[in-house]
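tool_call: predict_structure(chain=1)
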Amino acid sequence: MKHYKLLWTLTASIFLASCSKNDSAPTQTAIQPANGFFILNQGGYPDNNSSLTYYDFTTNSVSNDLYQAANSKQLGNLAQDFIIYGSKIYITLNGGTSAVNTLAVLDVNTQKLLKSDTINVPRYIVSYNGKIFVSSWDNNVYEIDTATYSVDKKIPVSGVGPEGMAIVGSSLYVANSGGYGTDSTVSVIDLNSLTEIKKIQVGYGASRVVANANGDVYVTCQGNYTDTSLSHVAVIDSKQNALKTTVNVLASQIDIYNNNAFISAIIYDANYNSAIAYPEIDLSGNTIIKQNFITDGTKITYPYGIDVDAQNGNIYVDDASTFSQNGSIYCFTEDGALKFKTSSNGIGPCKIVFVRS
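tool_result:
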């Protein structure tokens, strides 16, 4: 652990925040190169083996489980999402016996647990104006105070199974995935009044949500699990809060770099046959550039997450493999050539977050 404490000492200026008030995100005039990235490994249910590891660009190596090393216990079951905000790491977990329905708050420098809050089936996390917002399959979005780590408000949505989220201005766009049922909408929450102000039809299985610099909102819709042709990306005009268009590609996860969207997908039909795809979309005209942005023939067993480095356009795809052995992280150039591959040192990698000086 000494190596990682030293790393955080050297890079602490990006994260340090007062404990007497809500955390706020660091203000940067330019995106700095990353020193490395945290990896959230979902784990295999019910093995209580979710984990948090770190890839160091200086040593080109991956740590063992930082959470276990710092806290002398496992993180829990079914880690879902995480972000770094201010001086804290926020992680949602939604399964098992030791971490049922939990928002875990960690110190970013030491990875020590500060608090665990109970939230019913927590899913995804975004930050805004000193607050954390957590979607939940109990059909609410929770506003979390970043000073006390407690729930300030529970915001009901009229959709089913709130999932991925993105913020444009003072509006929060929440994909309603259907959760344990079905839905085909995105809820729009006004972050000033903390109320749902509109619901937009986008398509079945709405999942991940991102927004571009122009304020358009992109929602991956996986379909209804009987017909893979229903999968697409829905584009919402945030100025009108209306569906603008759809792009017919297989789509599960999505991230944006400059004017392009990079997508990874693994979609199942009623017979549990899977289709895997990596389309790339030009956001200026919402047209398909490539059906497969991976240009060198690299094969990935189970694409489970995608994140693009905003500083250089490198594309990172998480491979969960079989969910019974350590997964892998693949790094591609913006042109789709493999730069490197590394073990995630954990089961079912699902997201990475970059660390910058």
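agent: The CA atoms of residues 279 and 291 lie 4 Å apart. Proceeding to next step.
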